[in-house]
Amino acid sequence: MKKVFYLFLPVLFLFGNCTTEKEEITAGTIQSATAVKKEEPKSTFPAVGKVGQIRVVIEDELFSQKIETDLDAIYSVYFEPFKYPPQLKFEILQINETEFKGSNKRFRNIMFLKIDQNIPKGEPTVVLKEGQYAATQLCLYVLANNQKDLEYAVENMLSEYVSTFDKMAWQREYIRNKRESNKVLNKKVKELYGIDITFPSQAGIVSSKGDFLRIALPDESRPMELSGGNYQTSRTNFTQYGLMIWQYAFKDSLQLSYETLLKSRDTILKYNAPHEYEGVYMGTQYHPAILPVVTELKLNNVQGYELKGLFKFTGEQEPSGGLFWSFTFKHPKKDKIITLSSYVDGPPTTSMVPYLRRVQSILYSVKVD
Quick one: pLDDT at residue 302? Predict the structure, then answer.
């Protein structure tokens, strides 16, 4: 019997801005403390399936409540600080070995939980393979001699692999962008800002004003049926997402402080990102429970600050809002501060994770020659 469960969130606490440890990320490589064994793909087709979903292949009688609970505890990972609505990075779908056929074999994330009598008692093993059944696919094998050892492995040996699944999620989008890149747009951005960044072929400039550029990705729509009482209607939900780029003169390092980054952001957006309603413009959401979070980050060869939070349209009205994910840095070869700020705006009933991964892959491709 197929069993689906969604990962439950921990209690949400109020928090302020936080700065995490420095992190270094390179586009095009998978960085993990775990060893990844690359296999020649048995298919030339790319991996398929829902973004963020992990197919767990295990016989129904072995899929105990403890294994389910422990997987939930390990993969209850969500994008900070996108909590309203929460954006879970992973979803677990259990299937048995009989169901592991056809397109299931090419699914992007697969975890095999197996009993193998050849494995010594008390010595369960975990092996991560990349590209076994399809390109960019991750397969995690958890092998144990018995049920007790299998449950031990799930509880104690899987946490270190979460970051690898996380990084591969946006790397897949980056690889596709490289393959189907908008070379004209890439060249235009390099001419204007002196940076290399990889945009997908569907991206296009929708507005340009001095040092400010807004690039949109195609709106996506999903029909939603609404019914109640004696009525039934159908409406379409649209998700809008894209990237804004701006630059201004560098004077001193205080311009890169948390408070100044937010103040500069709000000022620039007020004059360059208007809503269709008169007197309404894009701003930042400052509710105490969802303050923006900043992280010092090195992307490829560019050192800067990643800022994530919620935006809202503000002014005479406040019609809507969404998620933003930005990266700000001093250009290493000229006295300019550059910000790449993505936005995702969609209905609260729709997961934003696929769109977050797409804008993440664009942000994380930035580099300077």
Answer: 97
Residue 234 CA to residue 142 CA, distance in Å, equals 45
Rounded to whole angstroms, the Cα distance separating 210 from 247 reads 9
Q: Which residues contact 229 (CB under 8 A, 6 or more apart)?
A: none
H or E segment to which residue 154 belongs = helix 147-156
pLDDT of amino acid 117: 96
pTM of model > 0.90:
no
Structure tokens at 182: 């908008």
Burial class of residue 144 (count of CB atoms within 10 Å of its CB; 0-12, 13-18, 19+): buried
Asked whether 195 and 188 are in contact (CB, 8 A), the reply is no
**What does the pLDDT read at residue 251?**
96
d(CA 263, CA 43): 50
Q: Nearest 5°: phi and psi at 266? A: -65, -40
Q: What is the DSSP letter of 263?
A: H
- List Cβ neighbours of 112 (8 Å cut-off, separation of 6 or more): 57, 58, 139, 140, 141, 142, 143
